[in-house]
Amino acid sequence: MSGFGGFLLRRAAGTVVTLLAISVIVYVVFYVTPGNVAQITCGPRCSPEQVHQVAEQLKLGDPLYVRYWHFLQGLFVGQDFSTGTSVEHCAAPCLGQSYQTGQQVLDIILAKLPVSVSLVLGAMVLWLLLGIGTGVLSAWRRGRLSERVLTAVTLAGTATPVFVIGLVLMIVVCGELQLLPFPQYVNFSDDPEQWAWNLLLPWLSLALIEAASFARLTRAAMLETLAEDHIRTFRAYGVAERSVVGRHALRGALAPVIALNANNVGSAIGGAVLTETLFGLPGIGQELVHAVKVVDLPVVVGMVLVTGFFVVLANAVADVLYAVADRRVVLA
Amino acid sequence: MSEALAAVGTAGTDSSVPAVSGARQFWRRLRAQRAALGAAAVVALLVLVALAAPLLTALEGQDPTTYHPALVDSARGGVPIGSFGGIGADHWLGVEPQTGRDMFARLVYGARVSLGVALAATMIQVAIGVAAGVAAALGNRWVDQLLSRATDVIVSMPLMIMALALLAIVPSSFPRPVLVTLVIGLIGWGTIAKIVRAQTLSLKGLDYVSAARLSGWGTWRVARRELLPGLAAPVITYAALLVPTNISVEAALSFLGVGVKPPTPSWGQMLTAADVWYQAAPQYLLLPAGALFVTVLALTVLGDGVRTALDPRAASRLRVGTGRKDAAAQKGAAQDTAAQDSAAQESAATGKEASA
């Protein structure tokens, strides 16, 4: 068991190192740009005095490592900002302040996060169910017509950009058939039923694309497992085919599926940006696109750090799950 | 031609004998897959269209950037005049709402942007990924640690998010298509570096590589002469699957309004306002969406075909290639990595973002 504990420790340490490295890179890339950092940070509409003030605040006179140290301090113990007239405290984890709206970046992100989490988690449930189900079915039905149809459909799914399927769904379901109104985000706490109905199309747009990749992977992994000796043994013992495929082969195929799910958290966040923009959902994706368009640098940097944090976390969790599913990993 | 036929003709009998060169065996296995052949034809056609864009638009007598205000009904918000968005002899696929720019010209020039950006970005990703992967595998402990950490970091950054963020800080005077290419290329190399590092490590232990090292060859010479040929199969496979992913990413960025900007046409960008016009000008939605779909689909199928042609295990399911016995013999050691292998390749094949 100490092996497993050690594995967990090593993995946790690796996660922290990766997160720190991400923060260094993000900091260097965004605050050591060749252009005028104060001007970019403040935004295109800032007056020279404001730009000067921002330059003071960012302590642009200090060497880079000192500035990064302050940035880290902000993340872990908080930071004080002077706004010229008053001093504002930014509690840890402090991601800085938007100079264009005056809000703290963390507040902006936290306000938008429930929408994005609702979108991604709901879609994840859908894509796992749809993807794994389709994959198992097409491995089971190998060589028959139904398998070919499923394969063709999933292939088409992988080739469709998420905003194209979203556009088509929106136009057909909301526009032509008028089955659903155009989505308007409703808080889960306000009205769970309306929350679900309004998120149905965004969920589907995001999930159908991701489900296709899961279906393909599950099918490939299932076929690989089905060719293994222990499956032949099960069959020789007369275990029902349904149980061989649905239980024993599926167990062997789950490890790569777990790995892919972690991998896809990043791409799902990217897909969420598109889905939110397309359906007008007020999540962090839409906010990021807005921040990019108006060049609100502190918000952009904060978003990159927060999404990177989620992806690293998802990868770590997946590694642990992978190790639980397949103990050989621990020894490696 | 007769040579090719002969190769296919004998494939069933002597395929397990490695007498044919790698390249010829690859072509033979690719040709054995009808879907991949069809996809290759479509891709070739698309590349031709992209290359011949100025020629095609000259034939039509239009160009992608000229406004035709007379062809849109300004009283109705800029709806194209005429049926199906103004399709006719002058404008083969109609005109864009509001601006009246020629759809056919924008579509074929859009192919240039899509394919050009995706191919160039893939080359950057492959160059960085192979360099980082080989260096990590051959370098000392510190080099490996440093490069592997860097790879972990780059893999952990969602490509779309990073691309969006980077596009924010670069001055808008920088040529947009080049910028999008660089951004996609510089962020998306993580997975290929991981694959190359793992493959190089396993090649490093093989006898012929050890022999070369023992005979006094330098690291650089061993890498170039002995390792790179062994890396070709996984790298080509993964690169083929990266191209459609990069096309999707470019389209997505342009759709969001931060990628390729007007007047340069891009399929993703054309879809930005398409939902507003779908009733008045359905072709404005359907053409770029269809072009994207067909291109990504053809490239994905071709990429799958390339993978099957290069993968001995997958090739055993074809009529040509190594026999079933070889596949069975390869199990054991291969089995452990196989699942992860296919996980990585599958996510490459299907993920909207390479390695996210």
From TrEMBL, chain A:
CDD domains: TM_PBP2. It comes from the Bacteria. It is a multi-pass membrane protein. Belongs to the binding-protein-dependent transport system permease family. This is ABC transporter permease. It comes from Streptomyces bangladeshensis. It is found in: Cell membrane. PANTHER family: DIPEPTIDE TRANSPORT SYSTEM PERMEASE PROTEIN DPPB-RELATED. Coiled coil: none annotated. InterPro entries: BPD_transp_1_N, MetI-like, MetI-like_sf.
TrEMBL record, chain B:
It comes from the Bacteria. Residues 111-303 form the ABC transmembrane type-1 domain. Residues 319-356 are annotated as: Disordered. The chain crosses the membrane at residues 35-56, 113-138, 150-171, 177-196, 227-247, 284-303. Its main location: membrane. The keyword NADP does not apply. Residues 329-350 have a biased composition (Low complexity). InterPro entries: BP-dependent_transpt_permease, MetI-like, MetI-like_sf, OppC_N. Belongs to the binding-protein-dependent transport system permease family. This is ABC transporter permease. It comes from Streptomyces tricolor. The lineage of its organism: Bacteria, Bacillati, Actinomycetota, Actinomycetes, Kitasatosporales.
